Every structure is written in C-alpha cells, then in structure tokens.
C-alpha cells in the first residue's frame, strides 16, 4: 500500500490509523493493537507519519524513524481545529492527518531517550521540593498549635525548631506529639538526602556535557537551569530565531493589536513553566548583585532598574538570557561577557 501521509491517534493499547494517498484521498482507516503497531509500519514504504505530542509520542517517533519514516509531532491545541465532528479515535486520527498537511504547521521536535531521562530527573526533583515544602509547613503549623514558633523561615530553621522542641522536656509537648514529630523529622531528613543525591547527579551531568558548561558561563544560569534547558530543547535548532525561543518560553509580551495599533501587555506565560521559572529566578539573583559591578551588562541592568519595576527588569534579563541560550545551543557559540 502506497501512502503519502498517515495520522496516528496514540493510546496505551489501541491505536487508530488514518492514511491518505498522493491525491489526498483516505485509503486506510483501521485500528491496531499495540503489538501490531511496528509490524504494520514495517510493511509500508517510507512516508510521513503524524502524531499528537503526548507522553508516548517521542518513543513511537524514534521507533518509526528507525524504519525510515518521517515523523512529525503536533501540539494537541493545533490539531483540535481540524476535528470535523464528535470526538472519537477515528476523527482524531483524521484531524491529525489533516493538520500535518498544512504547510505552515508548527511541529514539536522529537526528543532522544537521554533528553527524556534528563527531564524525568528534573521532574522528580521538582516533586520532591514541593513535598519537602509541604512537610516543612506541616511541621511548623503543628508546632505552632502548641505555642512553639520560629521567626526564621526555611528548611534549616524548621529543622532546628523540631530539634529544640524534642530537646525541651518542659515545653508541654505531649508524648504522642513527640513521637509524631520524630517521624516527621525523619521524613524531612529522607527528603533532604534524596534531593542531595539528585543534585549530585545533576552536577555530574553538568561536568560531562560541554553544552551545559557553555551555558553556565552566562550569569543567572547554573547547573540546574543549564541541564534542564539542554534536556528540553537539545540543540534548539527547531527555533528559527532567538525571539521565537523566548516566545516559546513565555517571556515575551502578550499582544492584542488591531487596526494598525500595537498593544502590548504582560508576558504571555506560554510554554514550559519550569524552564521559565528557573530563568526568572536566576535573573532575580543577578539583579540582586548588579549594583556593585561596572561591566556593560550590569550597567544596563542598573539603568533599567532606575526607570522600571524590579519585576519587569527581572523578566527582561530572563528574556535576554533565553536569547543568549538559543545562540549558544543552536550555533555552538561560547558566551562572551560584555
């Protein structure tokens, strides 16, 4: 069977196929089991295969590329306008196939297994940080009910508060609560140990990847941000310009223009929230120490702070760093501080 383009609606066990020929006529509509997927495509001549970008799409894209097919991943929000009627697997597969025929369609870059493993590392670390924060708040809240408070914030202050509460036998803390506090303290120590191991893994990856080392030369980008960026975008060549990369991260103004009148608002916050958060936090750290420096970058930040809100200056620096990241990854450049 000679097919020009195939749309695949992915699932866990059942996959829907919609294929068209060179005349854009539908010639293949069928449902495949998971075990039949690779055998079906192995019997076809190389063609274009389109799928929605989802959890398993990168795996299937790598497998089908090995068989010689050209795989294109499309963000789900770009497929939805092509769904002609009610939602079902057949209509979704047809919509994916139709969306892939558009000459100006934007595609998602296929990630390597190493990139996905790197992103998994960061997701686990982010989840552990959220769990640790919730645990710290729980400990402080429970002790506060017994009149035991600490003016300072943070993990270290909470650890000291718990230790002091257990050491003081005259603070009126019931024995049952002391037992619970010991368990919570052990849970906090375990979270800290797991986070330390993950941080060591990230530091090792940073030393082994020259792309990460080049990114870390930029002020405001450390090993966590650099490894997260490399895991997410690879060489960043899927973006045509630095501005497009910054827009993908949601670091450009939201636009609502009409009739030739340009209206710009706050940043649109589209794209990867985790990467944007890392860049903004790194930029905020740079701004905190720019007043004592005389280099061109610091002078630009000082002038910007004189006329704009610090939060606006922070986002402006994060935007600039994102564009520098694109140049470093896509062109193989090294950062030259100015």
From TrEMBL:
UniProt-listed NCBIfam families: transpos_IS110
Keyword Hydrolase in annotation: no
Q: What is the lineage of its organism?
A: Bacteria, Pseudomonadati, Pseudomonadota, Gammaproteobacteria, Pseudomonadales
- Annotated Transposase IS110-like N-terminal domain ranges read 6-145
Show the coiled coil region(s).
181-208
| Domain Transposase IS116/IS110/IS902 C-terminal: start-end pairs | 213-294
Checking InterPro entries in the record gives: Transp_IS110-like_N, Transpos_IS110, Transposase_20
Q: Does the keyword Coiled coil apply?
A: yes
Q: Name one GO molecular function term.
A: DNA binding
Keywords on this record? Coiled coil
Q: In Gene Ontology terms, what is a biological process of this protein?
A: DNA transposition
What is the official name of this protein in its record? Transposase IS116/IS110/IS902
